[in-house]
Amino acid sequence: MKFIPNLSFAECWGEGCFMSYEQDEDDQYNAGYDVGSFPKDFGYGPFDQDGDGPPGPLVSEQKPRILLMGLRRSGKSSIQKVVFHKMSPNETLFLESTNKIIKDDISNSSFVQFQIWDFPGQIDFFDATFDSDMIFGGCGALVFVIDAQDDYMEALNKLHLTVTKAFKVNHGIRFEVFIHKVDGLSDDYKMETQRDINQRANDDLADSGYDQIHLSFHLTSIYDHSIFEAFSKVVQKLIPQLPTLENLLNILISNSGMEKAFLFDVVSKIYIATDSSPVDMQSYELCCDMIDVVIDVSCIYGLRDDTEAAAFDCQSSSVIKLNNGTILYLREVNKFLALVCILREDNFDRQGIIDYNFLCFRDAIQQVFELRNENQVHLPLTTNHHSNLASNQNTTVNLETQNAALNAGAVQN
Ligand SMILES: Nc1nc2c(ncn2[C@@H]2O[C@H](COP(=O)(O)OP(=O)(O)OP(=O)(O)O)[C@@H](O)[C@H]2O)c(=O)[nH]1
């Protein structure tokens, strides 16, 4: 069973189930099922147009694209499988080498709709069949994976070649470098590797006159939460409504006495927004573990044999009290999104107020969905830089209305 720090008491209620128990840590370890093992059938199904948060008219060719590139065996397919398909990290040992571009549609919620293209490591940009205009043209982010456990000089050459080629075609691409497989490295060595890769990659770009290319670096491993955190940041940059979501979360936490709030995509456990206070890894891990607990308990005890109910639905909600006086509180926002917040136990005394504020928050999120869908109907859909800016402006104008609505509804805790 995966470690759940400080969990001393948990109450969870999901689809058709109510459960309350107290147990010590030893009992939890002996519980006989793996909390980290997200049920594999709990995944992205076909999107239900009538469900909460309709997806809007994005057809697959128009969805922002995230490209996964890097040398052979650097870990590209493993990342995609672990983050979006619930593969356990150990199973990736048996993945075969990718020999053609694999396109994966991630259509899980209104905000998070994109395609991931997993490239074979040996791809040759100078091959006549490589259509760089088509591949880089509609690309939102390019994730370049470097194996930090291997000699990375060849990877740096390939990184340079890749980003300069992509930048020539599309100036709006965001370049994200995953310094990957850092699980085998000491903390000092990790930092040193990141510094060295950062310096060399940027020097190479400056030497060839590409100072304007900005690279973001992330230390990642599929064996811990770092890969989910890094992917959260990549995906967030593709969500034009991010400032609106952050603002709504800021208003929610300041009116409800919360310390931190994350808006999670439940299936992948990437967070699509959080309030503007800094994210510490431990809080993020706690919230991820909470989602695992809720879905597992709901799958085991919440589903009735005779219905086709989902493990996460409008009744999904959970409170976990930690033994350090902190509360984790999860509420369903829509079919694919959950709000997970961290707050002090004293501030949870007036749960009614928090719940009321949450309903205001959920309404506001719903309005953002509706606005986005209206924009999609009226605006031509492209994924380039300029269209993102345009929809950002629309969102900003409407943000004032959203904030006013939430402020009017929010009750100070
Ligand atoms: N230690 C460690 N190993 C990893 C990690 N991620 C992937 N691997 C391993 O790296 C090996 C290669 O992974 P793949 O995902 O097949 O690599 P790829 O980049 O898709 O390879 P190609 O398809 O040949 O381009 C596998 O044995 C994985 O188990 C990681 O974070 N840490």
UniProtKB/TrEMBL annotation:
<keyword id="KW-0539">Nucleus</keyword>
<dbReference type="InterPro" id="IPR006762">
    <property type="entry name" value="Gtr1_RagA"/>
</dbReference>
<dbReference type="GO" id="GO:0043200">
    <property type="term" value="P:response to amino acid"/>
</dbReference>
<dbReference type="GO" id="GO:0019899">
    <property type="term" value="F:enzyme binding"/>
</dbReference>
<dbReference type="GO" id="GO:0003924">
    <property type="term" value="F:GTPase activity"/>
</dbReference>
<dbReference type="Pfam" id="PF04670">
    <property type="entry name" value="Gtr1_RagA"/>
</dbReference>
<dbReference type="GO" id="GO:1990131">
    <property type="term" value="C:Gtr1-Gtr2 GTPase complex"/>
</dbReference>
<keyword id="KW-0458">Lysosome</keyword>
<keyword id="KW-0472">Membrane</keyword>
<dbReference type="InterPro" id="IPR039400">
    <property type="entry name" value="RagC/D"/>
</dbReference>
<keyword id="KW-0963">Cytoplasm</keyword>
<dbReference type="GO" id="GO:0005765">
    <property type="term" value="C:lysosomal membrane"/>
</dbReference>
<comment type="similarity">
    <text>Belongs to the GTR/RAG GTP-binding protein family.</text>
</comment>
<dbReference type="GO" id="GO:1904263">
    <property type="term" value="P:positive regulation of TORC1 signaling"/>
</dbReference>
<protein>
    <recommendedName>
        <fullName>Ras-related GTP-binding protein D</fullName>
    </recommendedName>
</protein>
<dbReference type="InterPro" id="IPR027417">
    <property type="entry name" value="P-loop_NTPase"/>
</dbReference>
<dbReference type="GO" id="GO:0005829">
    <property type="term" value="C:cytosol"/>
</dbReference>
<dbReference type="GO" id="GO:0005654">
    <property type="term" value="C:nucleoplasm"/>
</dbReference>
<dbReference type="GO" id="GO:0046983">
    <property type="term" value="F:protein dimerization activity"/>
</dbReference>
<keyword id="KW-0342">GTP-binding</keyword>
<keyword id="KW-0378">Hydrolase</keyword>
<dbReference type="GO" id="GO:0019003">
    <property type="term" value="F:GDP binding"/>
</dbReference>
<keyword id="KW-0547">Nucleotide-binding</keyword>
<dbReference type="GO" id="GO:0005525">
    <property type="term" value="F:GTP binding"/>
</dbReference>
<dbReference type="GO" id="GO:0060090">
    <property type="term" value="F:molecular adaptor activity"/>
</dbReference>
<dbReference type="GO" id="GO:0010507">
    <property type="term" value="P:negative regulation of autophagy"/>
</dbReference>
<dbReference type="GO" id="GO:0034198">
    <property type="term" value="P:cellular response to amino acid starvation"/>
</dbReference>
